[in-house]
Design brief:
11 helices, 5-stranded parallel beta sheet, 11% strand, 233 residues, single chain, alpha/beta
């Protein structure tokens, strides 16, 4: 038991702080209760968009579990404002809508993942854990949609840049290898199995790469990699 506790402490000091935002009180309370029972620290809840922004700024959660259809201020605007102010914040959208336009708008506003409300409690708990480390989580079928959109955006002409553009940071061979698999849409667990390394080592490589490239999360990393054709390599 002691060894397990120490291993967890290395990864994170204390439980993951989560905030739940939904305008339906019974649903919001049920999600908050399920997450608390799973060991998360539910630091706040909110029932509308404006309340969500205020409380999130005060409570400083690690992960925001966010519905899109909110009164006062839509969920995508909440996401955009909070991630803009704090790029380290992870946002997991939990929505009844599987419409492609809603999914893409959420991701463009800064969401790390998108889960449908039809997901099981176990799927939600796993999704929040993965979202906390920057692993994008999507309901099956939606991940391909998002990757396809990134490829479309990456194929568009880039805005004109100055002649003296800074030289691209140097990544190690292993970092490039991990980045290539990230671009293909593999999860950290799948990358670890493919490269026969630990899940934690994959996380370390991703964090090092984010730092070198001055990116904030894995969603941005996927787009960076696709823009450079690494998903086709």
């Amino acid at each position: 038991m002691t060894g397990t506790t120490e291993a967890k402490d290395v990864r994170r000091q204390g439980p993951i702080k989560v905030m739940v935002v939904d305008d339906h009180p019974m649903w919001r309370d049920a999600v908050a209760r399920d997450l608390a029972e799973a060991g998360f620290d539910v630091v706040a809840t909110a029932g509308d968009g404006e309340q969500a922004v205020r409380r999130a700024q005060a409570a400083a959660p690690d992960v925001l579990v966010l519905d899109l259809n909110l009164p006062a201020k839509p969920g995508v605007q909440v996401c955009k404002e909070l991630v803009g102010a704090n790029p380290a914040l992870r946002v997991l959208v939990l929505s009844a809508s599987g419409e492609h336009a809603d999914v893409l708008e959420a991701v463009k506003s800064g969401a790390t993942g998108y889960l449908l409300k039809s997901a099981s409690t176990e799927e939600l708990i796993d999704a929040v854990r993965r979202t906390a480390v920057g692993d994008p989580v999507f309901t099956p079928g939606l991940a391909g949609l998002v990757l396809g959109e990134y490829r479309r955006l990456a194929s568009e002409p880039a805005p004109a840049a100055g002649v003296d553009e800074p030289k691209a940071p140097q990544l190690t061979d292993r970092e490039t290898e991990v980045l290539r698999l990230v671009a293909k849409g593999l999860s950290y667990k799948q990358i670890a199995e493919r490269l026969v390394i630990s899940h934690r080592t994959v996380q370390n490589h991703v964090q090092n790469t984010l730092g070198k490239l001055q990116l904030h999360n894995r969603v941005e990393l996927v787009r960076y990699a696709i823009e450079r054709g690494l998903d086709e390599a």
